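Repro case for the chain-ordering regression, as requested:
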Amino acid sequence: MSLDEKNWFTEIAEEAGTAFSLRVNECLHRERSDYQDIAVYQTTKFGRLLVIDGYVMLSDRDNFLYHEMLVHPALFTHAAPRRVAIVGGGDCGSLTEVLRHDDVVSAVQIEIDERVTRVAERWFPGLCTGAADPRAELLFDDGIEWMKRAPSGSLDVIIVDSTDPIGPAAGLFNAAFYTECRRVLATGGILVQQSESPLLHLDLIHDMRAAMAEAGYGALATLTFPQPVYPSGWWSATMARTGANLNGFRETAAERRKFKTRYYSAAVHHASLALPPFMQEALD
Amino acid sequence: MSLDEKNWFTEIAEEAGTAFSLRVNECLHRERSDYQDIAVYQTTKFGRLLVIDGYVMLSDRDNFLYHEMLVHPALFTHAAPRRVAIVGGGDCGSLTEVLRHDDVVSAVQIEIDERVTRVAERWFPGLCTGAADPRAELLFDDGIEWMKRAPSGSLDVIIVDSTDPIGPAAGLFNAAFYTECRRVLATGGILVQQSESPLLHLDLIHDMRAAMAEAGYGALATLTFPQPVYPSGWWSATMARTGANLNGFRETAAERRKFKTRYYSAAVHHASLALPPFMQEALD
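-- result from build under test --
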């Protein structure tokens, strides 16, 4: 069966030999920014859909999975996450989740493409509620350059919420960047980064972890979660800390969190870290 | 972007507003059995693909997720799974996983469509190794009728490995069938059934659990796992037992299992049962 272009948005994952399509009613917005092509579609069942350079970024229906799992495991593992930076994340979804934590006193988002944020503010206002928080600071800058200028020991958590490791985000997946992040993290600080599909991109996860280890992070932990609109429907994030381990999960705080989550819980936090044997073998 | 029919197999999940496609080199086999249309494709990246009535059943690459998670949680939760029946499961993948357990003395597979098994034997020989085991019995019969004739208390585990609850499998998702299964299960027996997508079919999971409760199963547990070739890429199975709980996970036996698994482990067993808040709220 073939899908006509008028009624379906299709993303082909060529290296995986797969494609994922969402039925759409209309293209609500499309522009060419200085960096990339940005489009918003109205789907029939997944709410609105944000697409950059032909790659699905998020849908209304299922972005809670990604944003909750990129943010809360790291923030509930850090002993006192007060100063947080988000590299990328221009849709503000991660920023908004970060600011649900009362511990946070400042959250800076460094997105290279201001147009992503402006498009999100217009078409995904629910994701952007955090941007109005007085603790939030929105910068439109190159995250790699910003990190080079950031004072040593000035952050507790760095969240790398980027597109795939091709194009503008390629420089966010190597030891040089991770080394800079390590300098900027205070003692006990945590770096967390989206790390693609456990089924499709195990080599990438392996190489990311190797680069993190090379950059001096002694403790690494990859967690997985479902993400239907991404290739394979299964995604991961990898946490890294200078030091011997990533212990210190504030389980009671997670259980008693005052904000509502749809996917994340203390039990899901533990569960997400239980890697299947095929991943453990590939990553060890 | 549109996908040509020649190079892609596409399954549309109309009610979800999604479609999933696999790039294929050729259609290896196609027939119309007495019950359904059966096709096998050679994909470029997922090995061979089994399709029934246009719905993806399994691929070489990722069926381990489904088969391991349908079988091992139930068998390691039962105290001594000696007598097992599989309703459906004509591809023999579940049967083969069942027979990895030394405790099992008999495993009967009741598949309505013999052609599914014959096609699997030819094109997916790796799934069918269990069929040659002397403990295996392959019947080609209606699972609902077979269950009505089965002696009371004659089974320890019933695995319902069926297609979606439409067409031939519709009768496997209601209280009348579950009541018959309850009669056939011995004390402590477990029924486990594939229960569709947590994201897309939460109403169905709810209704299945309600029908199981109506049929007298006091203990229910739904577990989730990734399954990239199924709609949403996220799937579930639901276990049911007459009695107060589904405790009794033989964790040490699971940890010391003599057979190799790629997804299942004792830790993954626990993790799969940690339901996210949105599921718990919908199922409570």
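Ordering looks correct now. Chain A has two domains: 8-59, 63-283.
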